[in-house]
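Task: encode each sequence below as structure tokens.

Item 1
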Amino acid sequence: MAVAGFRQKPPIDGTVYGVALNVRAHVASLDQAFHRAPYLAPPKSPILFIKPRNTFLSHGGVVPLPPELEEVEASAALALVFAQDTRAVSAEDALKAIAGCTLALDIAEPGGDYFRPPIREKCRDGFLPIGPSIVAREEIGDLDEITVQLEIDGKAVASVRTGDGIVSVAKLIEEISSFMTFRAGDVLLAALTPPGPRARLGSRISATARGLGRLECVLGREAGELP
């Protein structure tokens, strides 16, 4: 049974960074858009976005939609939790900085794009369900062999395999930590299903992955009621 709003605390307490456009098939599908001026080519470095604390929602929570919003875009993600402050780490040592993994659902208003910061679209209250718990890294196995699946109302609508990224998980941490520090407790959404699948008010959205369980939420109204 979904609970309204923020009654339970998600299993994280740091800043959450998302990585867009790290899936080869997704970048290929947007190829024409990136060849328009002024960009003329796809990006060569990770595209980062932030999910602030107000977006955090626990497993089983209700994502609070405002009255004017009837549907959202959803992506399922593998979330890496850092065990220690991490700066300028090599790919060979990158995974030693990871305490464990969990699942996340990146919820966004439809209509955002990659050519301006998606602040309103991605940063509404409750737009990052995350959990249900953190699984220790050593219990998971190869982080480039994890498949995350997105389900809407019980139907699988998208999936992503971490190994299908433009760069590996370890290389991604190396590239990002070359210019910024991850603090202990910070989270990196290292693999996201491509945006596009839509869910409507009242829908149940889930992320699943072997060894990480199932993360669920329901789309409700801002007051927390289900329709």
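Item 2
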Amino acid sequence: MSRLPIRARLTVVFALALVVVLAGTALFVSARLRGDLDETVDTGLRVRATAVAAVVRRGGTALGAPGAPAVIEGDETFAQVLAPTGRIVERAGGARAPALSAARLRAALRGPIQLERTVSGIEGTARVLARPQVGPDGRRVVVVGQSLADRDATLARLRDAFLVGGPIAVLIASLLGYGLATAGLAPVEAMRRRAAELSLSGEPERLPLPAARDEIHRLGATLNDMLERLRRAFERERRFVADASHELRTPIAVLKTELEGALRGGAFGAETSAALTAAVEECDRLGQLAEDLLLLARSAEGVLPVRPEPLDARTLLEGARQRFADRAARKGRRIDVDAPADVVVWGDPLRLRQALGNVADNALRHGAGTIRLSACASDGGVQIDVTDEGTGFDPALGGQAFDRFARGPSARSDGGAGLGLAIVRAIVEAHGGEASIAAGGCTTVRMRLPDRPPQGPLSHAA
């Protein structure tokens, strides 16, 4: 039940409630109608019993004789006058055998009784009224009765009407209820569709609100206020990152220059020289981190410009190999290039060089074995793969490898910032391409890029 859509749940609850209401109504109407019909029968029996008692009291005309009171209405009614021994003194109607047993007869001699029983000659069950009466011939028991076949048939028709009409009514009401639930939840669905298209960057947008000032309108207004607060917080964060990264570049560059000057001009010991060299390397990393943060801040604004031009894919990969060949050799690893000579990719050389550098740097930091840079034509574009012989991305990352600041345990231990693949995705998407992790036994980062000029200006929209 909890897994059903809310419209279906509302419809089911509404249908169950309607079934309970209809069942209660059927029981009430049936009981009320039965009581009314029984009251009508009882009234007729009392009238006929009074008429028969008057005949017995006077000792006059027999019940069935001409001129006797009209105490019989068709074959469904009867009247009897019984002696205390149970013998029928007078009778009229379809019942030929005594309508009372010996025990009931004794009770009737003491006072009026009423019961329902089967009487020979009367269809179905009969409702019987018996009362004592004294006449010229002594004590007698006046018995009148009426078949309940008509009453039972009326109640059966009512029951059949509820059994047939009830499910139809429940079905029609459920369809109407489902339609009403759908119409009532339409504003929620409209807000959901708009929310799926919203972005914190770009032009501010709001969720559509229904005209009625109801609970859904208040919910939408609350969500719009929350979106506005999130948008302002996102904008403050973006501006902070952009300003901080921009301001950090100059002092980091000055610090690096001073350290390099000290290394060139000073006569230091081995330990001091090693410390200064490590400081210069850390300055390089800080400078790269500042550049990365600035690029991500620009991409969040949707204005990461690229200047695409035709590039030879093999030349692009060879350039990446040469940049990292010495570093790979120091780690006892190799970088290979596999790309046909006629594959052309349409991209910004500076941005693609940065993207390839980030992927290769990740492979050197966290991968193992030979790194393979490959390119091939694929589906109207160019597919560039960077593969190493490592065990793949950390399972803790799940599908978040391209998210900003996403780092596995190994990246945390070696000081990684978790921005490399986020920048790769921003650059690839700015070219109109797609970055992904390829499935397989090795670690492969795949970039799909266009092989022809774009139809319009390109810029990344985060």
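Check on item 2: The mean pLDDT is 82. Residues 6-153 form a domain with the Beta-Lactamase fold (CATH 3.30.450.20).
End of task.
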